[in-house]
Automatic annotation (TrEMBL):
Name the UniProt record assigns to this protein: HTH luxR-type domain-containing protein
Molecular function via GO: DNA binding
Gene Ontology biological-process annotations: regulation of DNA-templated transcription
InterPro entries, A to Z: CheY-like_superfamily (IPR011006), EvgA-like (IPR051015), Sig_transdc_resp-reg_C-effctor (IPR016032), Tscrpt_reg_LuxR_C (IPR000792)
Every HTH luxR-type domain range: 154-219
Region described as Disordered: spans on this chain: 140-161, 216-235
Length: 235
């Protein structure tokens, strides 16, 4: 199967052995991926073609600096998603990575045959993070919501949403990627992105994952997150 032009994956790892092993594995498991490798984050797209997905292999000591520099790292690639493969599985660290803007967090403990599947989800516009981190994000979202003085519960903001925003939010609740939402609602993908940005602003969310976490969490219940079709969690 030839590489697909919309499945350009940049694999960044400082150690040659990681680059070679992961590239060989993905070439075998996902021959439609167009994989390039580097030992550092490039300053600009090669030959004018930005990757759809940038995957960084990092250890726990490298993560803090990477997250601090993430905005500048991804600045030359505004349309690219970012994923991290790391040996750190602390939910607090994963939560920090998601809040910093990482769309995918892939623990090194995950099965090798699940890697290509996770990357396909990210290439489709979805997210992939460990379930423990999603639970933590849901708890933080619950703590940040304003409380009604008479009920002690977070007020439901859905009345402030337009009909289309509510439609998009409902599909985000089920983990649908932008392309899937656009198809189901018969909208342009760019229009869906506008609605997602509006939802992020109204919910004070920093990324799609926080919007999806909010949508999945009833105000009267403890945070609960379950795997769905397009947004996957690694348990």
């Amino acid at each position: 199967m030839p590489a697909h032009p919309d499945r350009r994956v940049l694999l960044v790892a400082a150690k040659t052995i990681w680059r070679d092993l992961l590239a060989a594995h993905l070439t075998r498991e996902a021959p439609d991926f167009a994989i390039t490798c580097s030992d550092h984050a490039p300053a600009e797209p090669e030959e004018g073609l930005a990757p759809e997905l940038m995957v960084f292999v990092l250890n726990d000591n490298e993560l803090p600096e990477f997250l601090r520099e993430l905005d500048s790292i991804r600045a030359p690639f505004p349309g690219s998603s970012v994923a991290v493969i790391s040996d750190c599985e602390d939910p607090r660290v994963v939560s920090d990575a998601v809040k910093a803007g990482v769309e995918g967090y892939l623990p090194m403990s995950m099965a090798a045959d699940a890697l290509a599947h996770a990357l396909r989800i990210l290439l489709a516009g979805g997210e992939f993070v460990p379930s423990a981190a999603l639970v933590r994000l849901a708890a933080e979202r619950s703590n940040r919501q304003p409380r009604s003085p008479d009920s002690g519960r977070a007020p439901a903001p859905h009345a402030a949403f337009s009909r289309r925003e509510s439609d998009v939010l409902a599909l985000l609740r089920h983990g649908k990627a932008n392309k899937v939402i656009a198809s189901e609602l018969k909208l342009r993908e760019g229009t869906v992105k506008v609605h997602v940005r509006s939802l992020m602003r109204k919910l004070n969310a920093r990324n799609r994952t926080e919007v999806a976490v909010f949508a999945a969490q009833p105000a009267s219940q403890e945070p609960a997150v379950s795997p769905t079709r397009e947004t996957r969690v690694e348990s």
